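Known limitations

Structure tokens in this collection are predictions and should be treated as such. Users comparing against experimental data should check residue numbering before alignment. To illustrate the layout, the record for MFS transporter is reproduced below. The input appears on top and the generated tokens appear beneath it.
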Amino acid sequence: MKLKDTVLTSFLFFLVLSSWYVLRAVRNEMAVENYSQDFLLVLLAVTAITMLVINPIYAWIASRSNLKKIIIYCYSFLILNLFAFLSYSKSLSENNITEAIWLGRIFYVWCNIYSFFVVSIFWVLVINIFRDTKSRKLYGFIMAGGSLGAIFGSEISVRLSESFTNSGLEFFVLSASILLFCAMVIAIYIANSNKTSNLSEKVGGKWSDAINNIINTKEIRTIASYSWLFTLLMTIQWISAIPIIESYSDLSPQRIELFARIEQLVSPLTLLTQLFLTYIVIAAFGIKLILIVYGILFVIVFLLYGLVPSVGVVVFAQALLRVFEYGFNKPSREIIYSELGKKDRYKSSVFIDTFVTRFGDLTGSLLMAIGKLSSIALSVMPLLAIPLAALLSITGLKISKNSSNKVKGP
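Generated tokens:
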């Protein structure tokens, strides 16, 4: 793999994550606002249902397209969506409080869709270009570009946080759309510069391939189960953190700034991990240990939330889980994806990273809602989720066994 392709792909991830992290703090603020209104569960349910509807449409388009067209169609659609939000938000008057609230809710749902699709399409490109053993060694370097993008996007978000009160989404959306357009241009260039039959040919198959393979193929089903479990656990962790963050400040700009500051802490740590540790750890210890350890980290975090809940614990939990996710766990999963068949690389990987993970969010929210209705203290719920963390480790072991004959290292 050429050095130019690797650097460009890392820069592409920089742009992709920059565009998302400009919006992420606003999305998190919408979650806090709607949690206090007991509406967050409804929004997560709508998100999961929307993902279920969108995925067959994406699979239908992918079946009839090559990589370049998939990139153009998906990123152009997301950019048009951003401009639609920009146009509608500018049309609202200060007296349209109800419409502004619903715009925020719709934006929250859309952000959850955006965050997973924009990244999933990027990884479709990566796992179809960087497939051999030598190329997979570069995943850490490529992801490092994304971490720099997260830092850059978070910094933009911090600087725009004061504008949220008067201008709402306007500057956030405009910044994200410009960054994503630049990402699309770079992605098209990378796809054009790799003129192989694998990339230029249509993916083929049917719109239902991803769903059928998850049901009928044990390997895909186990990967899907793992993704469902870790997002379920991450959601329980996040909802447990919301009341702590609410108690930190009643003001939206201050909470948005806190979210962005957390990103600025997590992203450099992730960057250093990706640059210096990702390949070494995966090569030395293998995918098996990484997939198993994730569940153990959730146990540690849940014990802290249950026993000593505080803003400091929230920051620590975010740093620990997300550095491990993006430094080790995500690269390991992408290595497994890169060994799948062509249709699964284009369809099943996207379905898992979009609908299955959003369904994990919904399941985690439902469990927290059941706990609330049962009058179980919010600080107790993380402790009750510890067996699920153990199940995550067991599922990780099953994945590594299924992949042991295929994946020897990055």
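For this record: Residues 3-36 form the longest helix (34 residues). Residues 3-403 form a domain with the Growth Hormone; Chain: A; fold (CATH 1.20.1250.20). Please report discrepancies through the issue tracker.
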